[in-house]
Specification:
The structure holds two protein chains of two kinds. Chain A has 25 helices and three strands. In chain A, strand 2 and strand 3 form a beta hairpin. By secondary structure, chain B is an all-alpha fold. Chain B is built from 20 helices and two strands. In chain B, strands 1-2 form a two-stranded antiparallel ribbon. Classes of the chains: A mainly alpha, B mainly alpha.
């Protein structure tokens, strides 16, 4: 480990950027007092914000080089900044240290890199919005929180980022607050996340009770010694922290906020609700891999939740009409894959899929944003069609993203998804089931992805050409699309070729080896599996072949069923109207929440406020008070009935009582 | 001398204000402002003093007739009271500055009452003599009675009567206990009484503890003695609400800490599970109460019940972490709820309604207001990086160490708190502007922004560097913990002495 105070600047640069953009927003507000249409200095905001991100990106690269084992042995494996003493009470302390190892290095590169691209894109997308500068202030604030999340060495420091990204998500989902429903969606996201956070907090207490600290390195090192004695507590802590992850990373049953979160501007959906924030649950668990490895039953539970989430969200994506909703449910489903990786103890594969997903899903969201931008805020795919002629660059880059998402051979998503599935296959036991669900979901994914491509870009134009004039987006928006498209295509080849290809196979896996070594050793002990998991060459070819076949077949089918228009959608809806409606509503889970949770909470609030508080408790209080006042009235002949004399009487009574006490006491 | 100035400068200020002619409103405001500013600076001087012991004052006042018990003018400040003293000092100039928005009539009287109130509050936090403490405790009661009764809303008479009778009933019970206590201990010195407590029997200690705790519980207020608070808050003028939430309620929680816990540790240990239960249930209960409100000021008042539930939960966990969390949360609640009341007052001055459905879309017309409101709400829901989180987390952790069940109940407040505060925020700030009257609302002026900036600065400061504030309380809390541990140990030894009773008592203690 090496001291590197510049690590602090990675989160602080965006924080400073946020402050400057906030000031620009205030200056703009001031300018608008005289001229309501004035843009003020808000045009500077994207420059400031992007510069801050570029700075953080450069520092992330510097930090990566500092721990890169180009010349083995001389470089440290991790960097650590100076420590900020935060809370220190009664021998217990929570300090903030920026700590960069190979895992956080990957995360900072993704967050700052993809973040920078999205900042650039947003400078075009948000142009003309009255909250232009405010948007960049929030976006930069988000990046600050996200970087705190991935760089903190302490779980409570991670929690600062964890809640901070939640706050920014809330603010950005509700960015167009004057429309009303985005504000409701933001509130829903915050509250649902808070349910997860409540689990997280209790989980952290359990860790403190066992380890006496929340320093994650220290926890990881102590797990092997303490796992026999405190196995139950550790499992419960792991489970509760996963509850937190379910909120942030949108897993069953807490995923319901993410589809609604699409109410936010599309760059937000790309950055926060696809590439970075929603993956923080995956990051946290991989970071705490020894803890989870010590509790195989919890891993099994995670697998069940993840498989169910991947499947349910995937099927829901099949029937969505809103372009962004398809991508939202797809994100939920893909996050399920990442947790499936964790369930098999394939920490590296989970991160691999996290990274490739960040590339291709950010790309798809930005592409969708470009479409929506060009279509004058239209999101319904049934009112699109044939757009490939009007926005060729968006179209081509979108194809790259779709190919990666659907796992077409050699695309980034192909390698990462197949690695996750292969690891589950290799683990065996219950993980065979996860593998099967994963393969089925892969088929579903390929189908809905190419349905989306067909409905949006092919077929006849289903919009009113007189009113809507679709157009290609400007360079600041298409530029980032091209960069992400390249990453989506080659990302898999660079980061994680299966080992049958020899070359530089599993580059990311091997890079992360030291980070997950602790977890792997424990997992080998607790499950008897040979870590890291591998299958024979023959099986690997079979699995790769199966993955390719499934993806190609269903992508082809999804495309051909829809390239001519809405006939397929309409016939499905006509044949199974009830099932279709249920599926559109995510198997009815969201409306079940309204019935089972929201209504009872409202009812309880009413019962407490009116019946318990007003009638029961306050009734007793007022009854007592009234009796006293009545007595006062009767005693008016003795005194004048003012409050002062009640006081006097109470005082006299008190002295009397005190005297009684003394007599009794003696 | 310094501590005496903190108490009596406000009295001097009040006298000077009284001497001004009735129409010299500017002079009255100026005098009150100058006085509170000087007191604020002096309270910071106290903060900057390393050796707090050296500030103590003691002088015999009078001898209780028929006894040799000397009632003394004993003042002192330690880790338990330091933060309260500074909070009182810093908050009062802000309160005075806020009054020019809503106190337009009988300004002179109002300023006098505010200054008298400051004397009472400072006295409560600084007194180390039981009689002196009781004197200031009662003095603190009277000004609020007049502030609500004269400058309050429509139902002010109901609210004042309820508030007065309720808290006075509590005070009387405390007075009885105080007299008994002085009689038994033969002294009015808080330190001497605390030492003498060890010689009292368990039953008697429990009775005294119950009497003191009842008085403080009404003041805090602890469930189910809370129903006076929403009425008092709703009817009080803004400045009254800010003082009430900011400092006055803290007299109750401070009393719980200084007297109920530090003075009667054995009884506190026995009562701990029940008090923690009341605190935890209070968190949830207050949150649900707030959820059902349609009046924004009442909603904030109900949120106080919830937030003070945290303080009670933390204090009565009787662990170091819980006590420290409870103590810092007293400050946090004063800042964040005080700020919320200031903001509610500012919007009320413009729109003259507190009904949430009369608002909507305010963020579009009052963007600066929206920024401050959002900060206050985030501080209130305990966002890490702001003050509220530090207190809540430590309180829940302390409670978890003592009785995990109550911590789990309390942690749901994290969810419910977000529900009602964000709901109120959405209804007030977001959505389209539906009421035409709201379109013309003017945004905050410089005075309003200026008076809130110090509060926001403290909210951030405590959130980012809590150790700067909490380090000053560590030693005193350690002493209290030591006393609690000794009481626990004594209890354990006593239980071992009577083996038959041991299992039951042990069970009660460790549950």
């Amino acid at each position: 480990m090496e001291n590197a105070s510049y690590l602090w600047w990675i989160p602080l640069l965006p924080l400073i950027g946020a402050g400057v953009c906030g000031a620009l927003h205030l200056a703009t507000l001031r300018a608008r007092k005289t001229n309501p249409e004035a843009a003020g200095p808000s045009g500077l905001a994207p420059l400031v914000a992007s510069a801050a991100m570029a700075g953080a990106f450069v520092l992330s690269i510097v930090a990566w080089f500092a721990i890169c084992p180009c010349d083995e042995g001389t470089r440290p494996t991790a960097l650590s900044s100076g420590t900020w003493t935060w809370i220190s009470v009664g021998g217990l302390s929570f300090d903030l240290t920026m700590w960069l190892d190979r895992l956080s290095s990957v995360m900072t590169l993704v967050v700052t890199g993809v973040g920078l691209l999205i900042h650039v894109y947003a400078s075009g997308y948000m142009k003309g919005d009255k909250g232009y500068a405010k948007f960049f202030a929030y976006l930069n604030l988000f990046c600050f929180a996200m970087l705190m999340l991935v760089l903190s060495s302490n779980l409570l420091g991670l929690f600062i980022g964890w809640e901070g990204v939640g706050l920014c998500s809330y603010l950005l989902i509700g960015f167009w607050y004057d429309k009303g429903w985005p504000a409701e969606a933001g509130q829903k996201a915050f509250v649902v996340n808070r349910i997860g956070d409540a689990f997280f907090i209790i989980g952290s207490f359990l860790l403190i009770s066992v380890f006496g600290t929340l320093e994650m390195q220290s926890i990881g090192q102590q797990v092997p010694a303490l796992m026999d004695e405190h196995g139950g507590t550790l499992a419960l802590a792991a489970l509760l922290l996963f509850g937190g992850a379910c909120g942030k990373s949108a897993q069953l049953p807490l995923f319901v906020w993410l589809p609604d979160a699409m109410a936010g501007p599309t760059p937000v959906s790309a950055l926060i609700h696809a590439a970075t924030m929603v993956t923080s649950g995956v990051y946290m668990i991989v970071r705490l891999n020894p803890l989870y490895a010590a509790s195989p039953n919890v891993l099994l539970f995670i697998g069940c939740i993840a498989a169910a989430t991947a499947f349910i969200a995937g099927t829901t994506a099949l029937v969505q009409r809103d372009l962004k909703k398809v991508l939202a449910y797809s994100t939920v489903s893909q996050l399920g894959y990442m947790f499936l990786g964790i369930a098999a103890g394939a920490w590296g594969s989970a991160i691999f899929h996290l990274v490739t997903h960040a590339f291709f899903k950010a790309l798809l969201f930005l592409g969708a944003g470009s479409v929506i931008h060009g279509m004058h805020e239209e999101q319904d795919m049934h009112k699109m069609g044939g757009l490939r002629r009007h926005m060729p660059q968006t179209f081509v880059t979108f194809l790259a993203g779709a190919a990666a998402l659907s796992g077409l051979p050699l695309m980034s998503g192909f390698f990462s998804k197949d690695e996750v599935l292969m690891k589950n296959f290799a683990m065996g036991g219950a993980n065979y089931l996860f593998w099967m669900v994963g393969v089925v979901t892969a088929a579903i994914t390929a189908y809905y992805t190419w349905r989306m491509v067909a409905l949006t870009f092919f077929g006849e134009e289903r919009f009113d050409a007189k009113k809507v004039h679709p157009h290609e987006s400007p360079l600041v928006m298409t530029g980032p699309l091209w960069v992400l498209a390249v990453l989506s295509v080659v990302g898999g080849v660079v980061l994680g070729l299966p080992h049958v290809f020899h070359l530089w196979a599993h580059a990311l896996d091997r890079w992360l080896e030291p980070v997950v070594a602790g977890g792997n050793a424990i997992l080998a002990e607790t499950t008897g599996a040979h870590m890291p998991l591998e299958v024979s060459v023959a099986w690997e070819w079979i699995l790769l072949g199966l993955g390719s076949a499934v993806a190609l077949f269903f992508a082809h089918k999804g495309f051909h069923d829809h390239k001519r228009g809405l006939a397929m959608d309409e016939s499905v809806q006509g044949a199974f109207p009830a099932a279709h409606a249920k599926l559109t509503d995510a198997w009815g889970i969201d409306s079940a929440y309204a019935r089972v949770v929201v209504q009872p909470v409202k009812l309880l609030a009413f019962v407490i406020a009116v019946i318990v508080d007003q009638f029961a408790i306050d009734g007793v209080v007022n009854g007592t008070g009234r009796t006293m006042v009545d007595m006062g009235r009767r005693a008016r002949r003795l005194v004048d009935g003012s409050v002062a004399s009640y006081g006097l009487w109470i005082g006299a009574g008190a002295v009397l009582l005190a005297l009684t006490w003394f007599t009794w006491g003696n | 001398m310094l501590l005496s100035l903190l108490i009596f400068l406000p009295v001097l200020g009040a006298l000077l204000v009284a001497l001004t002619p009735k129409s010299a409103v500017a002079a009255q405001r100026g005098l009150a402002m100058a006085t509170t500013l000087v007191v604020a600076v002096l309270s910071l001087v106290v903060w900057g003093t390393d050796d707090l012991e050296s500030l103590s004052v003691a002088a015999t006042w009078f001898t209780l007739p028929g006894t040799d018990v000397e009632v003394a003018y004993r003042l002192g400040v330690d880790g338990l009271s330091l933060l309260m003293v500074v909070l009182t000092g810093v908050l009062m100039p802000i309160v005075i500055l806020s009054t020019s928005g809503h106190i337009k009539e009988r300004v002179k009287e109002f300023m006098i009452w505010v200054l008298v109130m400051q004397m009472g509050m400072m006295g409560v936090f600084l007194s180390l003599d039981l009689i002196l403490f009781y004197f200031f405790w009662e003095v603190g009661l009277v000004p609020l009675y007049f502030m609500v009764g004269i400058w309050g809303g429509q139902r002010r008479l109901y609210a004042t009567l309820k508030f007065f009778l309720y808290t006075f009933a509590g005070s009387v019970v405390m007075l009885i206990a105080a007299i008994a206590l002085i009689y038994r201990a033969g002294s009015t010195d808080v330190a001497a009484i605390t030492d003498a407590m060890a010689t009292l029997g368990a039953g008697e200690t429990m009775g005294l503890f119950a009497a003191f705790t009842l008085a403080f519980a009404i003041k805090v207020p602890v469930l189910p003695f809370h129903t006076w608070l929403p009425d008092a808050h709703t009817e009080a003028p803004t400045s009254g609400s800010v003082i009430l939430a900011g400092v006055l309620l803290k007299m109750g929680t401070y009393g719980l800490l200084r007297f109920s816990i530090a003075m009667f540790p054995a009884a506190a240990v026995a009562a701990s599970p029940y008090m923690m239960g009341l605190g935890a249930i209070g968190i949830v209960y207050g949150a649900f109460l707030a959820m059902a409100q349609t009046d924004i000021k009442r909603l904030v008042a109900c949120s106080s019940v919830s937030h003070l539930g945290y303080v009670v939960l933390g204090l009565f966990a009787l662990t170091h972490v819980g006590l420290a969390g409870g103590l810092i949360q007293m400050v946090n609640h004063g800042l964040s709820t005080g700020l919320l009341f200031l903001l509610v007052g500012m919007v009320y001055e413009r729109r003259h309604t507190r009904q949430l459905d009369q608002y909507g879309g305010i963020a579009s017309v009052m963007p600066v207001f929206a920024i401050f409101w959002t900060i206050a709400v985030l501080s209130s829901v305990g966002l890490p990086g702001l003050n509220g989180f530090v207190g809540e987390y430590l309180i829940l952790l302390g409670a978890f160490e003592a009785i995990p069940f109550w911590a789990v109940v309390g942690v749901t407040g994290v969810i419910f708190g977000a529900i009602y505060l964000l709901m109120a925020t959405r209804k007030m700030l977001y959505g389209p502007v539906v009421h035409e009257e709201n379109r013309a609302l003017s945004d905050l002026n410089t005075r309003e922004v200026a008076l809130m900036v110090p509060v926001v600065a403290l909210i951030v400061w405590i959130g980012v560097k809590p150790s700067y504030f909490m380090d000053r309380t560590e030693a005193s809390i350690a002493q209290v913990v030591e006393r609690i541990d000794r009481a626990r140990e004594a209890q354990r030894v006593a239980d071992l002495g009577t083996p038959a009773a041991a299992p039951a008592a042990r069970g009660g203690e460790t549950r």
